[in-house]
UniProtKB/TrEMBL annotation:
This is Phosphoribosylaminoimidazole-succinocarboxamide synthase. Its EC number is 6.3.2.6. It comes from the Bacteria. One of its GO terms (molecular function) is ATP binding. It comes from Brevibacillus composti. Residues 6-232 form the SAICAR synthetase/ADE2 N-terminal domain. InterPro entries: SAICAR_synt/ADE2_N, SAICAR_synt_PurC, SAICAR_synth, SAICAR_synthetase, SAICAR_synthetase_CS.
Amino acid sequence: MEKREQLYEGKAKRIYRTSSENQYWVEYKDEATAFNGEKKATITGKGELNNRITAIFFTMLKERGIDNHFIRLLSPTEQLVKRVEIIPLEVVVRNIAAGSLAKRLGMEEGTVLPQPVVEFYYKDDALGDPLVNPSHINILGIASEEDQARLEKLGLAVNEVLQAYLQERNILLVDFKLEFGRTPDGEILLADEISPDTCRFWDARTKVKLDKDRFRRDLGGVEEAYQEMLKRLGGEAHV
Ligand code: C5P
């Protein structure tokens, strides 16, 4: 497999074409951003940790029947994925009130929600990724109602699998964000990453945060928290 030209550089990853038309090369960066890019830092080792954690989650999801773009690891910080065109919607699933939901609805962080909440955000940096409802998605022409229903169903299915898997590792899955893409033949496929950058993970006993909130809120120990997540998932970093 050969790495070809860069197609895209995001806040946490670079995407490259490869010698195969239907496969992309993803490189995870050590850069961290929060609050729509306003806060920036380099966290040594983050690229490797998120690359490995994402690989573990995607492999596990595939084994449990949830197909996704992951093909294989290429190096400690790189992975090969299936080519998709990302749908500009962030699908957020929540089990416990935190972050923007706690703020928007005036709920105390840590309140267990009576049922999972699914939200869609329009992926647009200039607009700050606003929350959108089905009518908004319709007028923006981003996804049909059938596709929206499919995204919601997939989000809830990922939630069930991840929650059970993490529970066995003494981790609470507070909330997470997923992205989906369309394959060249139009199939919707889970894509992007699943990592402490895109999820809230709390230690089930102590409620200690093992995710990007440590960076957002200047709690310190960001890399250690990501290391701890990788360890609980049975992985090993080779920095
Ligand atoms: O900030 P908020 O509470 O809406 O975030 C919900 C979940 O989605 C969190 O796990 C957060 O890490 C993730 N998220 C993300 N990328 C964004 C916005 C939120 O990964 N642009």
